[in-house]
Structures are given as structure tokens and as C-alpha cells.
Amino acid sequence: MKFCPNCGVSPVAHEVPEGDNRLRHICRACGEIHYSNPKIVCGTLPVWQGKVLLCKRAIEPRYGKWTLPAGFMENGESVLDGALRETHEEALTRVNAPQLLTVLSVPMINQVHMMFWGEMPSHDFGVTPESLAVQLFTEDEIPWDEIAFRTVKTTLEHYFACRRAGDYTLHVSTISH
Ligand SMILES: [Zn+2]
């Protein structure tokens, strides 16, 4: 951030506001403090007849690697709405009765990833401009060495552990690099 998005006129300073203990972007003209906070990434783990739906990324980063349909939550939507929107945008599919499966903090990149799982209501899914391929995988077929992100790997591992246990629990952890 170089200029204040509030008033548009003044370059922002980088300093610790009074009563605070962190560096913030502050506008010297209008006084606005521009806080920077973690972003939420939300998505789903869609399941059809025991197989898990993965998308092959058509965009950087990790072009060509496999991921679950997920993306940044937008203003004005719930985290579940965001997860379902991303699922449709990336894989043209839906899930029934979505259940929160993982909440993963990734402090190195200031993100929190929240993933739901659910059964697909039908076999309908498809490729979109964001995916090179969309495909169903059995547990044995999962391309573990070609998974795009640690959060996706952790979510897949937790899902299969829950399925073996017959008990779908919420997994909360921190991914540190
Ligand atoms: Zn300003």
C-alpha cells in the first residue's frame, strides 16, 4: 500500500499507532489506520460413491498440481457460501449437507483455510477455466506427490482417517513451514 485508499491523496506511513504494538499503514492526512489481517480460504472435499473430487490447477501458483476446489472468501458471504461458490466455480459441482472438516492456520502466508466435506448429489461435475482437469479418485489413486498445498494434503489425510474411524471430527491445526 502506497497511497491511502480512504482519501486517495496521501502516501501512507508505516508506524505503530498509539496504544498499539504492531506496525500499521497509517494515513497522515485523514488519520485512517489500514489494518492488514489474515485472509480466509474456503473450499470443499466433494465425495461421490467413495471417491474424492480433485481439480488440476490451471493457474499459478502450483500450475498442474491437484487441489480441492477452494478459494478466497468474498465480502458479504458466509464461509460456507464461499466454499460452495468456489466448488461450483472450479468444478461445476455441489455437495449435500456440508460439514466443516478442517480449520488450518497458515501464519507464514497470513491465511486460514476452512474446508467442508460432503456427498455430491449427483455425478455432475466439469472442467472450468480454473481447472485443467476435474477427476474422481479412490483413496489408493490419490496423487499424493502431486498435491498442490499442505492444507489440501492435511484435509485429505484427515478425511480418510475419519472415514476409517466412521466418525467425522473437526481437525484444527497450524501448518508451519
Ligand atoms: Zn487518508
Helix and strand topology:
Blueprint: E1 12-15, E2 24-27, E3 33-34, E4 39-48, E5 51-57, E6 66-67, E7 70-72, H1 79-91, E8 96-106, E9 111-119, E10 131-137, H2 150-165, E11 171-174
Parallel strand pairs: 4-9, 8-11
Antiparallel strand pairs: 1-2, 2-3, 4-5, 4-7, 5-6, 5-10, 8-9
Bound molecules: zinc ion (ZN).
Structure explained in plain terms:
The protein has helices spanning 79-91, 150-165, and strands at 12-15, 24-27, 33-34, 39-48, 51-57, 66-67, 70-72, 96-106, 111-119, 131-137, 171-174. The chain is 16% helix and 36% strand. The radius of gyration is 19 Å and the shape is elongated. The chain is of the alpha+beta class and 177 residues long. Strand 1 and strand 2 form a beta hairpin. It contains 2 helices and 11 strands. The relative contact order is 0.19. The longest helix is centred in the C-terminal third of the chain and has 16 residues, at 150-165. Zinc ion binds next to loops.
**So what's the overall shape?**
elongated
Determine the fraction of residues in helical runs and give it as a percent range: 10-25%
Structural class: alpha+beta
Name the helix and strand elements from N-terminus to C-terminus, one letter apiece: EEEEEEEHEEEHE
Largest sheet: 8 strands, mixed
Oligomer: single chain
**In angstroms, what separates the terminal alpha carbons?**
26 Å
> What is the overall number of helices?
2
Heteromolecules bound: zinc ion
Low-confidence stretches: none
Number of strands: 11
Mean pLDDT over the residues: 96
- Note the beta-strand portion: 35-45%
